[in-house]
Design brief:
Shape of chain A: globular
Number of domains of chain B: 1
Helix content of chain A: over 70%
Structural class of chain A: mainly alpha
Order of helices and strands of chain A: HHHHHH
Shape of chain B: globular
Largest interface: A-B, 32 and 34 residues
Order of helices and strands of chain B: HHHHHHHHH
Strand content of chain B: under 5%
Oligomer: heterodimer
Distance between the termini of chain B: 22 Å
Number of strands of chain A: 0
Largest sheet of chain A: none
Radius of gyration of chain B: 17 Å
Number of strands of chain B: 0
Radius of gyration of chain A: 20 Å
Structural class of chain B: mainly alpha
Number of domains of chain A: 1
Strand content of chain A: under 5%
Number of helices of chain B: 9
Amino acid sequence: MSWKRFENFAGIVLPCLVGPAMIVALYLIFMVVPSERDQGIVQRIFYVHVPSAWTAFLGFFVVCGASLLFLWRGTDVWDRIAKASAEVGMVFCTLVLLTGPIWARPIWGAWWTWDPRLTMTIILWTIYASYLLLRAYGSEDDQIARYAAVLGIIGAIDIPLIVVSVRLWRGIHPAVMMSRDPQGGLRDPWMRFTLLVAALTFLLVYAWLLLVRVRALRIADEVERLHRANRIP
Amino acid sequence: MSGVWQILAKDLRIEFRSKTGLGSLFVLGLLVLLIFQFALPEKPTPESAAAALWISFVFAGTLGAQRTFLLERENLALDGLKTAPIDAASIFLAKMLGTLVTLTILQAVVVPLTALFTGIIPPAPLGLMGVCLLGNVGFSALATLFASISVASRAREVILPLLIFPLLVPLVISSVKASAVVLGAPGDAVVWVRVLVAFDVVFSVAGWLLFEQVLRE
């Protein structure tokens, strides 16, 4: 019962926070923060691109953590959190891959480069996609939650290896493009503040979407259970 | 651990007695090599030979890894295996070793064929064998774990490559790079071999630990 009460409480509080935070973040990005000296107005996409990437990574680690807890405890709520986090993380990962090329085209002169971070993100996207496809196909014997948990854990274990191998791969054939250093350019306090606000806003959006999906999955499970109990096909 | 050898011997006996099993792997491996030859520029390099070798291995290997669990689904043999007094970790080890043996035989055919087709004779044959074996161990560990998951899925043929290809990225990058070096490309293979060893250890242990969760009812 307490989980349901928490769901209801957060279901009211989070939207109330997300709306104003979104307006403040947009105002900061478009009206307050100064344009970057070399890149000009284009660089403002940074305040969407980078928080999306952070949120996508967070989503992935939540999938892994919830999967571990599900295998350990066997409580359904962890399975729902893992699934919901994969779905929401997939949205943010897609946002990274959409905003990345839009930013790269005017700055690097190419829609896509095999920069380690970009490569890493697209591999992460394919792991998310395979996780969601595995869940969507389901299994013949209703073991899908455990199978998905195994994939969620293995995927997270794989990340350090992917990072190392992709870095080495690029290190041997260095990219011609100039490297982009997001921390180095942020000398202006407004830039840092805007990034912080944008990151918090994205975190709130993630939390809210996660909550909405977890609740929807719980209700779907309950409907399924009632159907079975009353032998409705 | 006693069950490991029984399961392994049983699987290999089935594999060698069936007419289609190994045969289909060899033909698929050969076909991928051929397609690669047609798709590549005229003059092969150590890099392109290494690429052909591993693409052929990954595609045929995915098919091979699927077989060990497809066989167990016939006549509900998997349920028999689950009820046998053998722990899940031993079953995983046996299945992984079975896949490893089958895929080593596949490599014993594909690697000489690659050398023959491209005309690149490996200057360090032992080094190439070592890299092939290291790549094979990591592949077998990951593919065995997910083959057991994919055969339970409704889309079993489609889902295995979808599940393992993204996870195999570190293995594919480092195997291709290390193989290119031992085939004569400039560079240092040691750093790639390190990544391969890390991959092998991490996923052998992870599969060994997590397999119980896959088998549990």
